[in-house]
């Protein structure tokens, strides 16, 4: 949606801030509903939850193409985001259920590559459609792809679930609330969403304000996906040889540099360079935080992962709400400077916390608790 924000505002005759707020409604619903879908997937199965929500999300996304007012746009995007919100935690929990701990971070890094390449393709395609035809076709294409996935995922097997009675959702939430390290990781995810995902939301309209077309803005954002793909091998190598804190520290440093670059200029070359750096930061930081989230409270993994993903996109939604007015005024330099200021304590806290943390003992794993 970000590469189409300017086109949407022009076509509907609304301020850019209103289009940004519609994107924020999508991200907010996407984030808020993820813990709900985590609980649902525990009860009815990962794959079944994924297929049902993709069906409803696809229909809602197609419906977004036919709105004529900013209110209906915000509502339709929120509905689509709420159902699409099941995809991220269900997929990540599936990896946690089926991939051994020793090779889980490389597997999650590969998953992030797929997500990033999909985002790059969608970003470039959305910008091209907004320029050549209509932004409405972007929503139709997204919805159609979701419906195709509903059919394809029929072949995906459900992961095996442990025998015996399952803890209630309230018991799982109680375990999370009692684990200080889990709450710490969730807070890091929220702030990461503010900076990393918030940047990807603001970057296309910022580059368009600097003179880029919608197509070029989409392609510039697509550089991020290429960067994730190219840097993932490096991150997998480092993750096997170094402590995860190295990836968090290095990734946060790269993130700060990208924010400062965008604060200086939002022109095509600066935007492409920043997108390249954000891709490196995403693979380094996010895959490490995600792997950490699968480890901190093994007995409540599905709940933790859902809350982690929800916090990530809730942070992104907050950024969309906070930057709507500055973006309308064209003050993108202040937006990215604020991002750099937030990225510094994020990197310090994440690096320090991961360096101090140690895996739970076998007894704690069985009990669903962790060291704090």
From TrEMBL:
Stretches that traverse the bilayer: 12-32, 52-72, 78-95, 107-129, 135-153, 181-203, 209-232, 244-263, 269-289, 301-322, 334-355
Source domain of life: Bacteria
Keywords, in A-Z order: Cell membrane, Membrane, Transmembrane, Transmembrane helix
Gene3D superfamilies with a match to the protein in the record: MFS general substrate transporter like domains
This protein's GO CC annotations: plasma membrane
Gene Ontology molecular function: transmembrane transporter activity
Localization per record: Cell membrane
Membrane topology label: Multi-pass membrane protein
Pfam families according to UniProt: MFS_1 (PF07690)
Identification of the protein by name: MFS transporter
Species annotation: Nocardioides euryhalodurans
């Amino acid at each position: 949606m970000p590469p189409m924000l300017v086109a949407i505002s022009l076509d509907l005759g609304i301020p850019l801030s209103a289009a940004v707020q519609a994107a924020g409604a999508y991200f907010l619903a996407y984030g808020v509903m993820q813990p709900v879908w985590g609980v649902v997937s525990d009860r009815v199965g990962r794959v079944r939850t994924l297929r049902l929500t993709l069906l409803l999300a696809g229909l809602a996304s197609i419906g977004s193409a036919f709105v004529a007012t900013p209110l209906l746009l915000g509502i339709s995007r929120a509905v689509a985001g709420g159902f699409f919100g099941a995809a991220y935690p269900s997929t990540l929990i599936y990896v946690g259920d089926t991939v051994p701990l020793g090779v889980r971070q490389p597997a999650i890094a590969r998953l992030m590559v797929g997500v990033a390449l999909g985002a790059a393709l969608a970003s470039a395609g959305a910008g091209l459609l907004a320029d050549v035809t209509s932004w409405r076709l972007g929503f139709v294409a997204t919805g159609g792809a979701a419906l195709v996935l509903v059919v394809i995922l029929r072949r995906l097997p459900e992961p095996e679930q442990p025998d015996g009675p399952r803890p209630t959702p309230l018991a799982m939430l109680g375990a999370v609330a009692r684990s200080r390290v889990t709450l710490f990781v969730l807070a890091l995810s929220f702030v990461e969403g503010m900076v990393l995902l918030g940047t990807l939301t603001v970057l296309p309209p910022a580059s368009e304000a600097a003179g880029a077309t919608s197509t070029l803005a989409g392609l510039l954002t697509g550089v991020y996906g290429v960067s994730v793909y190219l840097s993932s091998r490096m991150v997998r190598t480092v993750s096997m040889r170094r402590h995860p804190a190295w990836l968090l520290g290095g990734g946060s440093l790269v993130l700060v540099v990208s924010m400062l670059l965008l604060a200086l200029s939002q022109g095509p070359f600066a935007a492409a360079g920043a997108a390249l750096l954000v891709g490196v930061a995403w693979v380094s930081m996010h895959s490490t935080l995600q792997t950490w989230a699968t480890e901190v409270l093994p007995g409540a993994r599905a709940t933790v992962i859902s809350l982690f993903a929800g916090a990530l996109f809730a942070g992104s939604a907050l950024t969309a709400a906070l930057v709507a007015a500055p973006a309308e005024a064209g003050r993108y330099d202040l937006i990215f400077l604020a991002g750099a200021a937030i990225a510094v304590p994020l990197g310090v806290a994440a690096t320090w916390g991961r360096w101090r943390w140690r895996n739970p003992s076998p007894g704690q794993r069985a009990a669903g608790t962790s060291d704090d």
